[in-house]
Give the backbone structure.
Amino acid sequence: MNQINWGILGCGDVTEVKSGPAFKKVPNSTTEAVMRRDAEKAKDYANRHQISKWYASAEELISDENINAIYIATPPAFHKDYAIEALKAGKNVYIEKPVTLTVAECEEIIATEKLYQKKVTVAHYRRALPLFIKIKELIDEQAIGDIRIIDLKLYQKPGSTQIAQTAENWRINPALSGGGLFYDLAPHQLDILVHIFGTPNYINGFSKNQSQQNAVADITSGQLIFNKDIVFNGLWCFNSHPDNELEKCEMIGSKGKIVFSFFGHDLDLTINSETEHFSFKNTQHIQQNMIEKTVNYFLGKGENPCSLEDALLSLKIMENFGRDNTLVI
């Protein structure tokens, strides 16, 4: 194998700019075909993106002999079955986040990956963005000393533009998304935390549906303790008043702090009361760096940039935080 020929399952909005075009722009990679259950939309996508083949059936795309890797960009409810089907067909898999609806589903894919000896990468693409590479470097070199506290706040108004908009709004359908808007945005944040700080020793959290506007929780609170007793506190609110919208993370150490937004481009590094500002620019297609690393991994030229085991860890945290499990005293 010297080139990855991709088949894209679910060529919806997320693939228009963020990911789809990048598969044809990284070295040794091209898009062979796309699939969407709506045949006219699949055909339109293929025509607009200069892709020669399109399908309205996932089974047909997966069985295409010219395809050796599958990108799964459907809502999470379909991830497990499509991933297992692709692995059984001898294809490597690049799968969107959250990797599955549940921990148990992810473990099923892991077992299948091992059984069929194929490769799976999860699209936690922020790992490959310059901002988070810099943050990891600062933490690893102890630029702010020993980390004491990580404080994360995300407050969004209902219908916020921070959340990707789709016609059917599947993100607030728990049968398709797994757990509402928290399940859409928190994977980006929690994956970076476990990528930098490793497996937490303590996990506890809960979710509530305060507004009762949808069938999913709209506020989530969670606590983690990482090695060296690093304490994390997170609060996600999706029913905030517009005046109170906020998205900020502070990593506080014994010598200073790092302040940044998971969905922004900047960070402030403060050491001994002196602050230095950094600003970073992403590629046009925000997943391109991650896709290039995935292609290299599939070709045997690099390590897995985000394994299923990596994704399983952040999913376990989400599953704990997503429960309505507050203690009654």
In short: The chain is about 30% helix and 25% strand. The chain has two domains: 4-125+287-302, 130-281.
